[in-house]
Specification:
Blueprint lengths: L30 E6 L4 E6 L11 E6 L1 E3 L3 E6 L4 E6 L9 E7 L8 E4 L3 E8 L5 E5 L3 H8 L15 H6 L7 E4 L11 H6 L3 E6 L22 E4 L2 H9 L2 E5 L1 H12 L11 E3 L14 E5 L6 H10 L1 H13 L10 E5 L5
Parallel strand pairs: 1-17, 3-12, 3-14, 4-11, 14-16
Antiparallel strand pairs: 1-2, 5-6, 5-8, 6-7, 7-10, 8-9, 9-10, 12-13, 13-15, 16-17
């Protein structure tokens, strides 16, 4: 079997101290590892200096999806604790799709109390274990008042606070719909955004599947989760005219590569599409000239995606250097800029 196909070859040791629990006070002070693939050259810098590594004819592509506070603490009428994890803010079939966590079996008609003035009721069961909920107040109001940001479990055991509402959101987020942040964008400040002259925006709503681990020992058998995305007509025109593109984050890359591979000639601006694209070594990635990304979990589909750009062994070498130089890992951690070599 090809060594790049084995899940075990995407594992690495990481000390707990390397997992960032909070972002830096100034987002752009994060460390930046720059890898120039054409020169096989590594530079250690800071994110504030990002513009100095980017050619003036390069367009940065941002995912403008916005995280919503989708985790609701609730209680049953009996007093038992419950958690409602809202999978969508869109009304479907008279209710809202959610995961419901309780210590007892869930049934149609079960009611849950939220705070002192709200309640939810199970009105339907979906095929994949989620439920349809109806609320006695507008969901947007309830989430704003009681919702918690769904930070990953490796950050303070997934227990978010009010500070995370700002920290776990990019400064350019505008389209509500993600349950996880496109974390490569967390390093940008308003000042740094002003320095980036060529920008385009896509919109991919990050779903709960982003936390799903790869379990297949042969990674090609992994079934990627599906996520909704769209691109406006104006931004599509910018992308078409761009001579070079750098994706800000793996979500932006998944949109661009989906457009390149699956929707050539069939894409309709502003329309919502689904993508379950899984990018891993052995595949050609022709939609970008570079990638800005964070340092990812061992064995994750994101690690495999970045490996597809520069090779698994090279990526793990860069990770070893990052660990040795005390880079901070995962969502609130530091960043990497990959500048790709010439592609056919």
């Amino acid at each position: 079997m090809n060594q790049d196909s084995k899940l075990c070859n995407y594992l690495f040791d990481l000390p707990d101290s390397a997992i960032a629990q909070r972002p830096l006070a100034n987002r752009q002070d994060s460390k930046l590892l720059v890898y120039d693939q054409a020169r096989d050259q590594i530079t250690h810098s800071t994110f504030s200096k990002l513009p100095t590594f980017i050619d003036c004819d390069t367009t940065l592509v941002f995912n403008q999806s916005k995280v919503y506070p989708c985790r609701l603490e609730a209680r049953k009428k009996s007093g038992g604790k419950a958690e409602l994890f809202m999978l969508s803010t869109e009304l479907e079939q008279g209710g809202y799709q959610a995961l419901v966590k309780t210590s007892s079996k869930k049934r149609l008609g079960d009611r849950f109390l939220i705070g002192d003035d709200c309640s939810a009721e199970i009105i339907g069961l979906n095929s994949k274990g989620s439920f349809q909920l109806a609320f006695d107040r507008p969901l947007a109001e309830i989430l704003e008042q009681y919702g918690k940001v769904p930070i990953p479990p490796y950050i303070r055991n997934g227990q978010s606070d009010l500070r995370d509402r700002q920290d776990y959101q990019t400064v350019y987020a505008s389209q509500l719909g993600s349950v996880a942040a496109p974390t490569a964008g967390l390093h940008f400040t308003p000042e740094l955004m002003q320095e980036i002259t060529a920008k385009a925006y896509v919109n991919l709503h990050v779903g709960l599947g982003t936390f799903a681990p790869v379990k297949e020992q042969e990674i090609e058998k992994h079934q990627m989760h599906s996520e909704r995305f769209s691109v406006s007509k104006a931004n599509l025109e910018v992308l078409k005219k761009a001579s070079k593109k750098i994706a800000v984050g793996t979500t932006s890359l998944r949109v661009l590569e989906s457009l390149e591979r699956e929707l050539v000639g069939d894409f309709v601006p502003d329309k919502s599409f689904e993508t379950d694209i899984f990018i891993y070594p052995g595949q050609e990635v022709n939609s970008i000239d570079g990638l800005i990304t964070n340092f990812h979990l061992p064995g994750s589909s994101l690690l495999m995606l970045v490996s597809a750009l520069i090779g698994r062994q090279k990526l793990l070498e860069l990770y070893r250097q990052a660990i040795a130089k005390d880079y901070r890992f995962f969502s609130y951690g530091d960043a990497m800029l990959i500048l790709r070599g010439e592609r056919s």
